[in-house]
Amino acid sequence: MITHLLSIDLEDWFHVLDNDATSSPNQWEKFPSRVEQSTERLLALFDKHDVKVTFFVLGWIAKKFPKLVKQIADNGHEIGCHSQNHPLIYLMSRKEFEDDLYNSLSLLRDISGQAVNMYRAPGFSITRECLWAFDILVKHGITVDSSVFPANRAHGGLAGFPTEPFIIKTSFGNLKELPISTFSFVGKRVAFSGGGYFRLFPRFLHSYLLNKATKPVIMYLHPREIDVSQPRLSLPLMRYIKTYINLQTTYNKLDYLLDHFSYGSVSEVISKVNWLETKLINS
Ligand SMILES: [Zn+2]
Predict the structure, then answer these.
(1) What are 169-210's pLDDT values in tens digits?
(2) pLDDT digit string (tens) for 226-273?
């Protein structure tokens, strides 16, 4: 049985990208946080299924809620890094990216007591224009990344990149990559296993694709995706739908899939990949 990745990007309802109302970290303090209650529900669900997962934690959240991050680590889950302030990487200089990474890693390593050597970029925003980000990740001790979205999307994406686990060769050494899972639909790669895609597609499609998978499916969710009572942002129609669709069914869908399939953390998943057989890409 394949162990699929279950990862949570730990951030709040106001960290939705691409909207002016909540885009600046200076504003975040004034919004009522809802991340603790949703994360508690997730932690209870993971305990019920006896599954250990990986949380890619935003540094800003760790600074504000160190006890929550400590609790996640104490419950046996893995802590990865989701940047300090949730920037789009393709809008940053190398120096800005490195500073943001350094700050978040220092904080997360300190609070969790874990090595923290896994990374996911906000909005999967590493594009062909900023592949240098992979070099900087390895320079700072990151050994596994899950930022590659191997299809077109609003925040860039890396269409044409491998759709199964692969290795990125950087000037500082190799990086194991767990790209977001896609399936082929009328000649296009379509994501299904995380965020709005996970909520949009019905349970039977998830079951079908998971049963058919020959490689681990890389799944990601945010605590806000099980929070039906979160404040709604004013977004363009399509983004509004994608951001808030099926919030009311997500928890039960996740519960069902945890019952019927095997999930685990990044460490569990990478230990079962035969890396000698995977593709090699230069950064
Ligand atoms: Zn994020």
Answers:
(1) 999 999 999 999 999 988 889 999 999 999 999 999 999 999
(2) 999 999 999 999 999 999 999 999 999 999 999 999 999 999 999 999
- Per residue in 62-101, pLDDT tens? 999 999 999 999 999 999 999 999 999 999 999 999 999 9
DSSP string of the chain? Answer: -PEEEEEEEE--GGG-SS-GGG--HHHHTTSPP-HHHHHHHHHHHHHHTT---EEEE-HHHHHH-HHHHHHHHHTT-EEEE--SS---GGGS-HHHHHHHHHHHHHHHHHHH-S---EE--GGG---GGGTHHHHHHHHTT--EE-----S-BTTB--TTS-SS-EEEEETTEEEEE-PPPEEEETTEEEE-SBHHHHHHS-HHHHHHHHHH-SS--EEEE-GGGG-TTSPPP---HHHHHHHHTTHHHHHHHHHHHHHHSEEE-HHHHHHTS-GGGS-EEE-
Who surrounds ion ligand 1 at CB < 5 A?
9, 11, 122
Expressed in angstroms and rounded, the spacing between residue 101 Cα and the centre of ligand 1 is: 14
Ligand 1 centre and the CA of 32: distance in Å?
Answer: 18
The total number of structural domains in the chain stands at: 1
Residue 149 domain boundaries: 3-282
CA 15 to centroid of ligand 1, rounded, Å: 7
Distance 63 CA to ligand 1 centre (A): 16
Residue 233 sits in a domain whose CATH number is 3.20.20.370
